[in-house]
């Protein structure tokens, strides 16, 4: 439990006595709303200078048709009622993208009842064999973004992660390995997007102790991950072009969800 509390302390309320912090999604919800409120440009009707960036709470309340008190209490992490319709208006007022909107509803406990299948560590041999049957670099990632199987082409491409005797977690490779910035082109941009995509996955498993421990470990060991995690960005996974530096190569990445276990993703890279 200490890891979970450390995560909340470091990402939601830094500086507050850890004994005062409960591992409560409402606090994460409050921090998320506040961060996105402060990112909004001032209302068009406003002119002049202001002390704080973004919308004021009163302006956000007016934009989504609720009271300023309700917004304040949400940001403070209080146990207040939030109907799906009110949350929808809030998401629209905050101009959230689809993944960010899903994250908001999950933290509020109002997410669509279609939940992912329960996580399992056991995979059928037929699933584990999928990468080996492909003629392009391919690997399987589980819910913790750990590679469960991969082919030789992927091992050759991801030197320092899928070759040799390395930690197979993709996030630890990207943020803790000195090899990653020398291998992945535009590493800063990719790292930012990776964290935002991982937060979208994490939002579906807020009480998963394995994921909480992973986030806690990355925060402790990577200042870059900690900074990006605190940005509260949420993005859906996308394919697209991936560039590698050493040696220079270009691929198109595709990600497929395994129907028998939606926590497992098959990632393939087609040479360009």
From TrEMBL:
What Pfam families does UniProt report for this protein, alphabetically? HTH_31, MLTR_LBD
Kindly indicate where the leader peptide sits in this chain.
none
Q: Where is the HTH cro/C1-type domain?
A: 32-101
Please give the InterPro entries that the UniProt record associates with this protein: Cro/C1-type_HTH, Lambda_DNA-bd_dom_sf, MLTR_LBD
Gene3D superfamilies, per database record: 3.30.450.180, lambda repressor-like DNA-binding domains
What is this protein called in UniProt?
Answer: Helix-turn-helix transcriptional regulator
């Amino acid at each position: 439990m200490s890891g979970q509390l450390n995560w909340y302390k470091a990402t939601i309320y830094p500086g507050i006595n850890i004994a005062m912090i409960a591992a409560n999604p409402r606090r994460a919800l409050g921090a998320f709303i506040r961060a996105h409120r402060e990112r909004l440009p001032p209302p068009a009707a406003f002119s002049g200078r202001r002390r704080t960036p973004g919308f004021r709470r009163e302006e956000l309340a007016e934009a989504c048709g609720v009271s300023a008190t309700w917004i304040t209490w949400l940001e403070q992490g209080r146990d207040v009622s939030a109907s799906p319709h009110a949350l929808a208006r809030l998401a629209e007022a905050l101009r959230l993208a689809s993944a960010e909107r899903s994250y908001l509803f999950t933290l509020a406990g109002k997410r669509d009842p279609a939940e992912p299948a329960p996580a399992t560590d056991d995979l059928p041999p037929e699933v584990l064999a999928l990468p080996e049957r492909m003629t392009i670099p391919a690997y399987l990632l589980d819910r913790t973004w750990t590679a469960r199987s991969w082919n030789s082409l992927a091992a050759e491409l991801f030197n320092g992660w899928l070759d040799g005797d390395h930690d197979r977690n993709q996030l630890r490779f990207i943020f803790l390995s000195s090899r990653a910035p020398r291998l992945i082109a535009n590493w800063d941009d990719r790292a930012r997007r990776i964290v935002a995509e991982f937060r979208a996955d994490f939002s579906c498993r807020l009480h998963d102790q394995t994921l909480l421990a992973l986030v806690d470990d990355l925060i402790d060991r990577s200042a870059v991950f900690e900074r990006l995690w605190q940005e509260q960005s949420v993005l859906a996974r996308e394919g697209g072009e991936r560039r590698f530096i050493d040696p220079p190569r270009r691929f198109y990445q595709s990600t497929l969800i395994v129907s028998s276990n939606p926590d497992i993703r098959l990632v393939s890279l087609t040479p360009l």
